[in-house]
Amino acid sequence: MKKLAEVLRDWEAVIGLEVHTELTTLETKMFCNCRLSHDDPPNTNVCPVCLGMPGALPVPNERAIESIVMAGLATNCQIMRHSMFYRKHYFYPDMAKNFQTTQGPVAFCMHGHLDLEVSGPGAGERPDGTVEKGGDGSYVAPIRILRIHMEEDAAKMVHVGGEEGRITAATESLIDYNRCGTPLIELVTEPDLRTPEEARLFMEKLRQTFLTLGISDCSLESGSMRCDGNVSLRRRGSTEFGTKTEMKNINSFKSLHDALEYEICRQAEVLEEGGIVYQETRHWEPSRKRTVVMRVKETADDYRLFPDPDLAPFDLTDEFVERCRSRIPELPDAKRDRYMADYGLKRADAAQLAGDPSVASFFEEALEGADAKVVPTVANVMVNLVPSVGELTVAQVRGIAVLLAEDAVTFAQAREVAGAISGTGEDPAAYVDAHGMRQSTDEGALGAIVDEVLGRCTDQVQQYRDGNKKVLGFLVGQCMKAAKGSGNPKAFNKMLAERLEG
Ligand code: ADP
Ligand code: MG
Ligand code: ZN
Questions:
Q1: Ligand nearest to the CA of residue 146, numbered in listed order
Q2: Is residue 175 in contact with ligand 1, taking CB distance under 6 Å?
Q3: What is the rounded CA–CA span in Å between residue 262 and residue 256?
């Protein structure tokens, strides 16, 4: 198969995502009072409603409606004042009542958008006019959201035995209804995404947004956030859509990217050989890095969708919507802009800190009581050290930033200190002193070393004066050596340059 970059020269990929998010932070299920917990022993959080007993009546969870309205407001959707629940029929033991309660043509949230910032290599091209290109090849892609509707999750099934990955007569199927009836919101994008990277970024941004709203733990790994990827190809310049395939239940950002990449290349090969892409559901196999057919697509008619007579239509009041709006905390984009304006952070660093609410609150806590000039260093430590060393406390991060800001340690030493004190609660300054790592910036003490080095390295001094500024690095090295590592390289650099230029 051809590589993605080569394929995308001739073909344009058209991608739409369907993202399911369980509202895991709620106490109870969507239509009954059962406890919302997937960790309890199987089939302990169940009742006649979520087990689908005849005659049991559903009562909607108001908290879940608040959550979906918040999700809609945060993604620039129109909040539909009038909507209702429908029954979507199918037969499978994961939903004992034989239909899923979901929404019809009008969802609580319609017609929103999220703006993606795409940058760096692999950004790809968006030849359509909707894109503002930055000078560095980065661009902003507005991705339209068709709808976000409310529905309920099905039970969890586990298949044991039989052949690997296939259900046979020897398979035993176990079922846990604890998950059945979990409030679930499904977000459907318009087919506006153009590369696997854009799809990955969209999922990340959505996850950050929902995490910030506090409506879900958004774990792709445990399945509380899952995504189906739809993709088709068309010749560059064509405005008609090709036939799409759909990949189900992708459970990591990498899988989403890789599955789309594979599928784009596969479709290109089929089309270039004169074949046809069939509208089908495919399954991504991460271990083999390929997609395989799961089933051909069912049509909407098969579901016998009709309004649920057990659930009254909704008429949301302005007051209700405004209450939801007032609960929305500062969203990642606004936070990023604030970090840039207030702390002078670089856009990429600000975005990284603002994206994850737990990282953002850690950062803000680390700034409490810190000197203004330490702020960029705290950000630097957060972005470049914390992810690699894990368990640092807020006080430790602040302490490391202070050492760096005072030039008491180099960045390499800061990394070493961070690694050593991670998980111990030890004070970084105390550690540095105990291990003789503190570097001097004392002009008097370092000045003697600088003079000694300049006195003996006459060749390099001459080279520098002849315009070869690169020898400065050598001279700094000589000073460091003479100081046995206890002198600060930045201070040496500055003092050497001053003396050589002077
Ligand atoms: P289906 O009825 O097969 O579920 P929908 O119209 O509901 O299809 O769309 C499902 C998802 O597929 C949406 O995210 C939509 O943007 C996307 N989609 C629709 N048509 C195409 C296409 N031709 N190529 C790629 N994605 C598409
Ligand atoms: Mg669909
Ligand atoms: Zn129940």
A1: 1
A2: no
A3: 10
**Per-residue pLDDT in tens (0 to 9) along the chain, 502 residues:** 889 988 988 999 999 999 999 999 999 999 999 999 878 999 999 999 999 999 999 999 999 999 999 999 999 999 999 999 999 998 889 999 999 999 999 999 999 999 988 875 444 455 444 444 555 667 788 999 999 999 999 999 888 887 766 778 888 889 999 999 999 999 999 999 999 999 999 999 999 999 999 999 999 999 999 999 999 999 998 989 999 999 987 889 999 999 999 999 999 999 999 999 999 988 888 888 888 887 665 565 678 899 999 999 999 999 999 999 999 999 999 999 999 998 888 888 898 899 888 899 999 998 888 888 888 889 888 888 876 667 888 999 999 999 888 888 888 888 888 888 888 889 999 888 888 878 777 777 788 888 888 888 888 888 888 888 888 899 989 888 888 777 788 888 888 888 888 7
Take residue 48 and report the two structure tokens written for it: 């006649």
Q: Where are the alpha helices (DSSP H) in 46-104?
A: 62-74
Is 498 exposed, middle or buried, given 0-12, 13-18 or 19+ CB atoms closer than 10 A? exposed
280 CB within 6 A, ligand 1: no
Which of the listed residues 148, 149, 230 should we mutate to test ligand 1's pocket, taking the one with most ligand atoms within 8 A of CB? 230
Q: Count Cβ neighbours within 10 Å for each residue of 301-316 and write b for 16 or more, e otherwise.
A: eebebeebeebeebeb
3-state secondary structure of 148: strand
Atom 25 of ligand 1, residue of closest alpha carbon: 231
Q: What length does the chain have?
A: 502
Taking alpha carbons only, the member of 146, 144, 140, 145 closest to residue 116 is 140
**pTM (two decimals):** 0.84
* 417-426 long-range contacts, CB within 8 A, separation 24+: 418/381, 418/385, 418/386, 418/388, 418/389, 418/392, 419/388, 419/389, 421/392, 421/396, 422/389, 422/390, 422/391, 422/392, 422/396, 423/390, 423/391, 425/393, 425/396, 426/396
